[in-house]
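Note to self: keep these together.
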Amino acid sequence: MRLMSILTALTIYSGVASAATSKCDVELGHGLIITDDSIRIVDNNQTRVQINHDDQLLIGGYWIDLNENETKVLRDYAKGIRDTVPELVELATDGVNLGLAAIEQVVESMSDKEPEVLKTQLQYVERALMDKFKRGDDFFFIAPQSLSKIDDFFTKEISQKIHSAVHGSLGAILVSLGDAFKSREGNIEDRINDMGQRMEIISREIDKSLQKKAHQLEAKATEYCECLNRLDETESRLQAIVPKLLEYDLVQIRS
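Structure:
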């Protein structure tokens, strides 16, 4: 069935996404919220460390005085975060949103209306995603997590929720088609043929998009590893200047 092909492609994409990050065994010890003006290291929705305009450091709400050379290290640290994290959040959210959009398109092609069960299940998928990665018009968020185990999040938790959404929707759609047939609302055979053609077109387009995305992620794998290692080194330099930051160690390289 073409719907399963789309889900398989999404799983393949998720596996490739994990390859882009699993080359380095990296963990983020704290959550991050990044805007144009600030970077915040957060725990339990509370800001622990804040960097304003990439050159002003606050810890626990208290201003930390830095000289010119120390401020340069802070800027390097902020730049390393900005060069890595927002793009990672974009890649993660774009991949899932692409899969969710594909499912909605397929379901809409099969039925005159979107089953309520699909809306509910997709809300669960989006909520799980936003707990880990979130992107708004003016911010990026990433939760504390092992970046080398993103594949578990996508291929297990997200994939399971997507399958639940699809299976529940198919049941509702079959009931809808059966009711339409009983009440003679249109030719059910024509609707099924049209459904198959739409699914074929959508599947081809999604496959092309996923293949392109996979190549982009593969090209980023080595770059991510190098960036995260450099960020860890810069963080160590900043911690030597401000030992209080050791309590909020962000980048932890395990390998």
